[in-house]
Each structure stands twice: as C-alpha cells, then as structure tokens.
Design a protein that fits this description.
Blueprint lengths: L2 E5 L2 E4 L4 E8 L8 E6 L5 E7 L6 E3 L7 E6 L4 E6 L8 E7 L16 E6 L1
Parallel strand pairs: 2-10
Antiparallel strand pairs: 1-3, 3-8, 4-5, 4-9, 5-6, 7-8, 9-10
Amino acid sequence: QVQLVESGGGLVQSGGSLRLSCAASGFTFSNWAMSWVRQAPGKELEWVSDINSGGASTNYADSVKGRFTISRDNAKSTLYLQMNSLKPEDTAVYYCAPGDYTTYERYHEVWGQGTLVTVSS
C-alpha cells in the first residue's frame, strides 16, 4: 500500500533552516508530480510547493518563494523541502502529497502523519 513518511521537522529560531524529507513507497514515485502541503494550528491546509515527476519543473506559493526549495531523488523515492529564512508564520505540520497544486487534494487518504515545524520568534 502507499506509504508517505515525512521527517526532518523540529524547533528552530526565526531565520533558521530545516530540511524536510518524505520517503515514499507502494507506488511508482518517479511517475508522479509531488507536493508539499502544510497546516498551521487552527488554519486550513495550504499548498506550499510542487515538483514534476522528473524534477525539472517546480512551483511555489508566494508565501515561501525565494526561501524554500523543493527537490526529489527518484532513485531513492524521496521528496525534499529545504526551508531557509524561516519565519514564525511557517509554523505548521508539513505533509507530502502525490499530485501537483491542482490535484494534491484528491489523494488525501494516503497522506502520512506529517512532520511538525515550529519556528520561534
């Protein structure tokens, strides 16, 4: 079955960096665009970034553009999110999801537990 396991979250000071990872299994990872999505406490889901199946094309939400970088290693079936210049408003649970910004919500049932990122001011 499909498994998505996020890791790399933690507590970091404002201006700091973190690198999130998402280990995927149970499907042909290299055939799928992938997204990072986040949910801040008491707020709705927010799409953060996506990357096409080959890794050559990426998109970012305006709120993270220039600070976050999405990448993937298809040989390892792993998705990454490098987060720099973190702000308190980046505090959220981060999930990886199959699909791009137009389709990621379709596969909510296979999302993992997410990884919590907390940015202190």
